[in-house]
Structures are given as structure tokens and as C-alpha cells.
Amino acid sequence: MKTAFTFEIRVVTCNSCGAPIAVGEAGGRLDCGHCGGAQQTEAGSRAVTRSPPVPEPERLEGLRRADRGSVRPPKAVEDMFAGLELLPWKMGAALATWKTTRAAASAGGDYQTERLLHRLSVALADHFTTEGDALRARSLLEAALDATREAVFRQMLCGALCRCACAVGDLRAAESWLALCDPASGELMADTAYRLGRATIDTAYKRYDAVLGVLGNAPGSVPFYNEYEGVCAALQANAFEKLGRVDLAVSVLDAFNQNSSAFDRLLCAQYLSQNAASQLCAQSAPQADALQRARGIRVAGKTAGAAGFALVSTIVSFGLGLGVGAILALFGLFGAGHFSVGLGGLLGCVFGTIGVVDYRKSAHARRLRSSGVPAAARIVHARGTGLHTMGVPQLLYRVLVLPREGAPFLAHSMFHADASDRARFTPGALVVVRMDPERRGSVQIELD
Fold first, then answer.
1. What's residue 327's pLDDT?
2. Which pTM does this prediction carry?
């Protein structure tokens, strides 16, 4: 079977129009079938440089100590992305930036240039794969591979080619792309790329014991680069589930949920949704999601308002007013007693009103966390409202919501933010919001 990812041919991008061109392994001069432009290609090695041999326990310990990385794209192109996905209206700018970055990498670019080329290549390939243009996706990845020298990025690109070949059902090609990789890299990014490619192929073949052999037989037994941790957790949990250990599958996903950000969880959920036809984690994912949703509902209810504080204050105000009034009346101070009862009643009414309002806010926040539609968002602005509850200020956040369907829109989310929340949710930060299915403009930042 020949597909867009067949290993025995080379696919490059036209230097003029960017169209994919299939060529022989030896390279040579060719003309683009789209724009007619002439192009000279050279044969190049696809293999990834192997790391020096290190005892496996020592290698794993080194990987555990490594920086787990960030899912944020490079600053130079951050405005083109919603998380790791390119914004549709930035596609032209992304392609233009990819072209200039690839030229710079081909001319001997530095580490950061190749990092940027890798990020753009993978994001563009994901986009064109989703659009059904697998040949275009392959040409971008392979052209980037030809221009890249750093072993870690070469392995990441080969891993992406392997996964794309799996996505179109060409497991033979996937094995060939993965065979280029270093199976014992000392770099966490490269090691994760290999493990993910191997696990993706083995999952397609239903070799679930092999999946656990490469991803680990227990939660946290193998370290993963942060960007792919959710996908690896999903494949690991799916292997346990298919082997009849749904309890272990739930524990893997629940451990990931508790130790990851809301955005990491969103990426994992999107991966499961994109692979719904394969029934990945069909039983365990809903159970793990229910556990996380319960935790999130509790957090949302606590931060949305001060209903509990207001309720206690209402009871105390009424109780003090009545108690002091009764004592004063015993001493014949009926006027002062009436005043105390009235003051207590007034304060109770004030706190009671606050309690009702905040209870409604809390209930709305809990409902959004329970049944709201998740979406990526970027914080635009944050300001205090002047209200505090037990020393914790209430903040109003303005966010640009980036739904997977439909146009972006501005919305507001208000909650009591402690010091850790204020450090996480700063202008420019990428967050996850829950949107009201009936009123899209009503959103709540996911805090758990």
C-alpha cells in the first residue's frame, strides 16, 4: 500500500509555491507540477544520530531529572497559536514564517531556529492532516527534517512522520520512520517522541502488553515530555483497559488529571475525541473525568462567591441583635434593646442579600464547571473589583475565548483569586474556560 507517507520516496516542498513534490531518494533537478518552477534537490540522510550508550537505570534517572518543558510555542509565533494549534486566520502568516525559518535552518541556523521550525512544521502538518491533505503535511515535515541538524528535533520530526503514517493507516511506513529514531536517547523530548511513536504503532496492532512495555506498567513509572504527557497517559490507560484492568486505567488518567494543568487536560481530551473511532479509554476516560469534575466543582463553588461567609454573618448578626436586645430589655432599657434588635436585623438583611447573590454566583460557577463546554482562552486583562472575602480579593478577568468552532470572542470571568491564582492567571496566559452551552458569552476560567 502506497500512501502520502510511503518511506521509499522523498517528498519536498517547492521553493516557489510551497506545493509538495515527490522525488526519488537520490534527489536531482525537477520541475514543480503546480507552478512550473525549477528546483534542485540533494540526497540527504534521514537517520537520527544515536546517543552514547548509557546503562538503562542511569538513563531513566537522567530523564526524570530533565526539564519537562512547556506546551507554549516560541514567543516569536505565540500569537499564531491557540495552545499548540494554529489559529485558522494565521495560516498564511505561519506558512510564510515556516518558509523563512526553513531557509535560515538550511543555511546553518541555531538551536532556537530549529526549535521554531519544528514547532511550525508539526502544527502545520496537524492542520493539513485534519484538512485531508496528507501529502502537504508530509512535505512540510520532511522538508523540515532535511533542514534540521539537531538530533532532538530530527527525532521529533521523525516521530511526527511516524504518527502521521499511523493516522492514514500505513503502519509499514510508520515502522520505517520510527526505525530512524534513537530508541535510547538521553534527551527527554527525543525519548518521548520515540516512546509515543512506538506506542501508537503497537496500539494500532492491538499489542497492549508492548504498549505498557514502552510507556510503563504503573502511573509515573516513565517520565514524559510535558507536551505529550496527556497522549502517553491516554495510550497507557487504554492498554490497561483493553487488558481488562479498568481500575488501573482510571488511576493513570486520574493521576495525570491531578498533576496537570487545565490546558494539558484539554489537549488529552481533544486527542481522545479525535480518536473516538478507535474507542480509546471508552470506559476509563468518563470515570476519570467524573472524578476531576467533582474536584473542579468544589473549587469553582469556593472561589465564585462568599455565600458561606455571608450565611454565617447573617446568623451571627441576627443572633447578636436578639441576644443583646433581650439583655437590655431585662434591665429596662427597652429603647436600646429595640435599637439592637433592629441593627441586628438590618445587618442580617444586608449579609443575607450578599449571601443570596453569592450563592447564585457559586451555583452558576459549579454548573459551568460541571456541564460547560471547554475551550482555550487567553487572558487579556485582569483587575480587582475592590471586594475581599477573608482577605482574598475578587478579580475580574477579561479573556479572548478561542473555541474550536466559531469565531473568537471576548468574555469576562470573575472569582476570588488567592496568591497562587494571581501568579497563574496573568495577562497573556493561556487558560481553559467553560462556556455556557446556551449563552456562549458566559464563561468561567477552569481553576482546578
1. 57
2. 0.82
